[in-house]
């Protein structure tokens, strides 16, 4: 996730694009400009090293949210739609877009448009899209993408120090408590950090090898991987002051 704004704007359009493996790249646009779907496809191409932008993911793996002001009643309105293949990610969508307990509506779609057989024909060309990396990435139109990627050989691709923070949140399954922790973390990181960051959520049941590599024996655990030294918080993720002490240098 790339942090360039201290907090989410009150009015904005947000677009989320998922991969079949569950990775997420999304944008938050206060100006509500067009063509974001193409930008997110290009972002996935750069992030995962694809041969071309995966346009076939649109609209099957997308969700859109619009926060707007009703001119008649002068009240804030929210319209949120997601396609069937990403409806299971509602809790994560609420966390990244700063919305509490929003129930997303099913976006209108044509029967057969996202046929699993048709989508499966792309798997050989884009195998990276079916991998489960648990990436959550905020994309900025200037092309800056900051992310953490787990390499197939078990090692990790760490960004240079100038790219900001790399954080990993280890959880046991995805629950209401996980959503609350994510929401608090996103709010804190957006308001407190003045540099890009990446937050990767890792389910220890799906990726036990990652938990072992990071010496995680209990959940939830927040690990600051970069910048070094590596630090961690176990079981007290809702203590925002403790998280700030983990992230910021002592003299800040």
From TrEMBL:
Residues annotated as domain KaiB: 168-249
SMART domains the UniProt entry points to: KaiB
Source domain of life: Bacteria
Family annotation (PANTHER family): CIRCADIAN CLOCK PROTEIN KAIB2, KAIB-LIKE PROTEIN 1
Name the record gives this protein: Circadian clock KaiB family protein
Species of origin: Floridaenema aerugineum BLCC-F46
Organism phylogeny: Bacteria, Bacillati, Cyanobacteriota, Cyanophyceae, Oscillatoriophycideae
């Amino acid at each position: 996730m790339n942090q360039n704004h201290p907090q989410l704007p009150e009015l904005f359009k947000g677009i989320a694009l998922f991969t079949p493996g569950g990775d997420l790249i999304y944008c938050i646009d206060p100006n509500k400009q067009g063509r974001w779907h193409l930008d997110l496809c290009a972002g996935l191409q750069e992030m995962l090293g694809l041969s071309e932008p995966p346009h076939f993911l649109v609209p099957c793996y997308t969700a859109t949210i619009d926060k707007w002001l009703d001119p008649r009643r002068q009240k804030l309105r929210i319209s949120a739609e997601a396609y069937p293949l990403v409806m299971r990610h509602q809790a994560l969508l609420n966390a990244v877009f700063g919305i509490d307990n929003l129930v997303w509506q099913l976006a209108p779609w044509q029967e057969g448009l996202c046929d699993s057989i048709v989508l499966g024909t792309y798997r050989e060309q884009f195998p990276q899209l079916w991998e489960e990396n648990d990436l959550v990435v905020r994309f900025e139109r200037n092309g800056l993408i900051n992310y953490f990627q787990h390499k197939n050989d078990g090692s990790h691709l760490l960004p240079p120090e100038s790219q900001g923070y790399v954080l990993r949140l280890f959880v046991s399954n995805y629950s209401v408590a996980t959503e609350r922790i994510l929401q608090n973390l996103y709010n804190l990181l957006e308001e407190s950090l003045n540099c890009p960051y990446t937050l990767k959520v890792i389910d220890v049941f799906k990726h036990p090898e990652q938990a072992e590599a990071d010496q995680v024996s209990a959940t939830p655990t927040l690990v600051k991987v970069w910048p070094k030294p590596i630090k961690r918080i176990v079981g007290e993720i809702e203590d925002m002051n403790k998280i700030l002490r983990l992230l910021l240098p002592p003299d800040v």
